[in-house]
Amino acid sequence: MLLALGALATRLEGLGPPTARRVLAAVDGGQIDEMQDLLEQFGHSARDSTLSEFLRGAVLLRQGRYYGALRCFGHAVDDPQLRVHTLLLSGEALYRLGQFRDAIGVLAQALEEDPDRPEIHLWLASAYYDLGLNPEARAHLLRAAELVPENPRPHRLLGLMDKDFEHYEEAVANYRESLRRSPVQPDTPQILLEMAECQIKLRAYAAALETLSRLPSSPDRWVKEAECLHAAGKPEEAKAKVEAALRQSPAHLSGLLLAGALALERGAVDEAVEWLGRAAVAYPREYLVRFRLAQALRRAGRTAEADRETAIAEELRQLRDEFSRLHQTAAAEPDNAEVRYRLGVLARKLGWPNLARVWFRAALGIDPRYEQARRELLQGGLGSFPSQTTKVSP
Amino acid sequence: MRHVSMHAARTGVSLLVVVAAIGCGAQRAEPIAQPAAASVDLNPSPAATPICPLRFVDVTATSGVVFYHTDGSSGRHYIPETVTAGLATFDYDNDGLVDIYFPNGAALPGTTVNRPARHALFRNLGACRFQEVTELAGVPCTGYGLGVTAADFDNDGDVDLYVSQFGPNVLYRNNGDGTFTDVTISAGVSDGGKLGAGVVFFDMEGDGDLDLFVANYLKFSYETHIVLYGHGVAEYVGPRAYPPEYHTLYRNEGDGRFTDASQDSGIAQHPGKGMGVVAADYDGDGDTDLFVLNDVFENFCFANDGHGHFREIALLNGFKYNGEGMALGSMGVDCGDYDNDGWLDLYQTSYQNELPVLFRNLGNGLFEDVTVRSGAGQGTLNNVKWGCGFVDFDNDGHRDLFVAMGHLQDLIDQWDSSTSYRTRNVVLRNNGKGRFIDVSKLAGIADLAPHSARGACFEDFDNDGDVDVVILNSREAATVLRNMYYEKGGTNHYLALELRGRTTNRDAVGARVQVNAGELVLVDEVHSGRGYQSHWGSRLHFGLGKHQRVERVTVRWIGGHRDTWEDLPADRTVRLSEGDGVAQPIVP
Fold first, then answer.
1. Model confidence at B262: pLDDT above 50
2. Global pTM value
3. What is the predicted ipTM?
4. Assign residue A381 a region: left if phi > 0, alpha if psi is -120 to 50, beta otherwise?
5. Cβ neighbours of residue B417 under 8 Å, at least 6 residues apart?
6. CB of A392 within 8 Å of any CB in chain B?
7. Are B313 and B363 in contact (CB under 8 A)?
8. Which chain B residues contact residue A321 at CB under 8 A?
9. Least CB-CB distance to A213: which of B20, B37, B377?
C-alpha cells in the first residue's frame, strides 16, 4: 500500500497541484485532518475531482472504511492515469473485506495494466493464500521477489509456506534468501527461529545451532538447542537447557514436550507425566501433547487415565487428518466454499480460532451468501471445544 | 506427491500482516546477535571418534548371481510396480550353504516381452559363488512376485517356499531332492489373487506346525488405476488413492492343507495396506505375535493369546505410530535386541522425509521410539527406505543396522533434487552404548554404485564367520556384498546356530535363544519372514566380541520348554536339536 502511494507521489508531481507531496505525506503518516484540508484545496475541477475522490478513497481505506473507499475508487477508476493505482487500492479494500475472489478479479485487471508492479503481485499472493491456493500465491510471491530484488519479504513468506507444508529444504533456502536481502528485518528473530526449526527437521543439527547462535538468548533458542543436543546423544546437557527454558517460560510447548521425552528416556516416568500434564493443561487441543501424555501414563501404569488420553489424542488426530485432507481439497477446488467452511469448523475444534476466522472469511469470499460461515464469524466463541482438559496429578 | 503427512497443512493465519509491511520504509528491527560460533557442542568426545572395522565389497560380478529385476512397467505407472520385491535366503538343499531366491515382476498391460521374466533360485556353491538352478529346481514362476518367505511347513526336513504375488500366490513344497512342487491349490493358499505383500510362517497356536500370515497391500485393479501428473510427468499415485485390503491368516492343518482362519483369529477385522511383516514374541509370554506395517496407514500389532486368537493392540503398546504420533509410509520391519537387554526391539523403514523408527522394547509390553537419540535414522532422511536388518556385521556383540534405499518414483530426479531414484544404502554401526554411527563411507557402502534397492537379506554366504548382504534392486541387477571383516584383520568371534525342532516345528520358528558369553547376554529368535517382504536368518548369528567360548546357550522352544547347551567353542556353526544335548557341527 505504502509503496503504491510512494509511486503515486512521483506521478502526482506532474499534475501540478503543489499539495501532492503533502497529500501523500499525510496519507503516509495517517494524518486524516491534513488530508481533508488538502482535499479542499484541490477545488472543483474535473481533474481535481477525480483525484480528490481517489485521495478520499485512500483516506477511507486507511480508516478501515472499506465500502466507502470502494465507492470513491469507483469514481477514479476510469481515469487512465489513476487506473492502476485505483485498482490496486480497490483490490486491497476488497481483500480486507474478505472478498478474496473479487479482490483477485480487480487485482488481475491492475496486473493487465501494469504486470510489473510488485504490490499487485503481493496482494494477489495474499488473496490466493487466504483462499488456500498456495501454488498461485507462490507464483506471485516469486514474481514480486524478482521485481524488487532488495525486498526480503516475499522469500520470508515463501519460507513460512514451505515450512507449513513440510518442505524444509525449500523453506531454509527461502529464509536464507530473505536474510541475504536484508539481514535485519523486524522479524529476523522469528525468521531465524523458523529456519532453525526446519534445519532440525532436516536433522542438520550443526547448521541449526549456527542459526540459533545468531539469536539472543531466549527460551525458544534454548529449547531448540536442547533438541539438537538430544539428537546428538547428550541428554544431560539437553535436560539442563530445556529446564532453564521452562524456568523462564513455564508454558513453552516444545520445552514441555522435550522435558517430558527426556524424563521418559531416563525412566523418570512420574516426572514425564508431570511435564506433559502441564502441557495438556496449557494446550488441551495439541495432539502431540495428548499422544505423549497417554504414552507416559501408560508407562506409569495409570491405564485408565492413559486410555482416556489416548481417546482424546485419537479424536484430535482424526480432526487434524481431516484438516490436512480438506486442505488439499481446497487447493484443488478454488471455488468450493463449503470445503473452506468445513476447514473453519475443524480449525475451531482444533483450537485455532484465528485460522478458523480466515477459513470462514474464505468461504464468504467465494460465496457471500454462505450464512453458516457468516454466523460462525459473528458468533465469536471460536475457542470452545468439546473435549475435556485432563487434569493430571503428578 | 505420494505421501502428505497429517501435519502438512497451513498453520499461518494470513499473509496480510506481512504483506502490509512491505515497502513501509523505515523498519524497526530488534538488535540481532552477530553470527558466532555455536555455543553448543554436538561433537562426541574424542574417545568416541568413529572407528570402523567394516568393509563391504561388491562381488556380484564374480558371484554368478545374474538376476535382473523387472517391475513389468511400460510407463503406465501401475502402483504394484512400486512395491516389488523382497527376496529370500535359505538352505534349500541342506548342504550347509545358504542359497538365494529372487521373486521377479512380470509384464503388466502395455508391456510386451519376448520371454516372460521369472523368479530365480541360485544355489550356493561356496566361497560366494552361486549357480542358477531355477529350472532344475522347478521354481520358474512367471507371476508378479512381491513377498517371499521360507520354512519347512510340512516338517519333512527341507525348507519350503511361499511367494506372495499380484495375482495368485504360490506355495512350493521342497521335495528333498533339490526340486520343488507347486502345491498351492492342494494346500489352499493362493489367497485369491490379491496384491500381496509380506508373508511369514509362524506357529500361532503351538501345535507343532507352521501357520501362514499373508499381508496384502491394497485393493488395486486396472479399472481403478490412477496416474498423477503433478510435476508435468507421469507419477505413481500413493496408497491413499486405493482402499485397504484384508490380510489373510491360514491355519496349517498338518496334512498339507491350510484353512483360512482370518475370521476366527480376529485378523479379518483389520484391513490395512500391508508391507513388511515380522512375527516375534515381543512380550516374552511364549507365543508369537504379529507386527504388520501398513503404508501411510497405522501399524498393526496382533497380540496372540497363545491359541491363535489375536487382538490388535498397536495403539496401546506404542507400535502404531512413531514418536510424533504419525503413521508413516511404512515399508520393511525387522526385530532384534539392539541394546542387549533381553528384549526384542523393532526397526521399521519409511518413506522419503520420514525417519525410520527404532522401537525400543521396554520389557513391560510397551515400545518407545528412540530413533533420534540413538541415531538410528542417520543418512536416510531424504530417501525412501525398504529392506532393513539388525545384523552384527563385526561380531562385536552389538547388532548394527543396514538400510536399503531407493525411490519408487522412477522420474523423481526430474523434479526433486533432494533425492534420487537410484541411491546408496546405509550401514549404521552400533557403538554398544545405545548409539548408531553412520559408517557407510568407511565401510565402502557409500562408494558403491547407486541402485533403487528394495529387499535385502543378510547371511554368511561364504561361511567365513561374518554376515554378507544380498540386495534386490528394482529394474536392475541384484547386488551381492561380501563382508570383509576378517580379511581386514577383524579378530572378534562368533557362533552360528541352526535349530531343529522335534516336537515343535522342524525349523524351530519362534524358538528363543539366549547366548551367554562373558558379560554378553545375547538374545534372538528364529523368524520366517522379515525385513522388506523378505526372509533371511534361519541360521542365528551371534557376535561374541573377544570371547572364544560360549558358557551357555539356552533355547526356549515354542510351548515353553527349554534346552541348554554349555561350554561351546566359538567360530563355528552348530546345529542344536530339541531334546538333544549335543551340538552338532555343520560343515558345508
1. yes
2. 0.89
3. 0.88
4. left
5. none
6. no
7. no
8. 6
9. B37
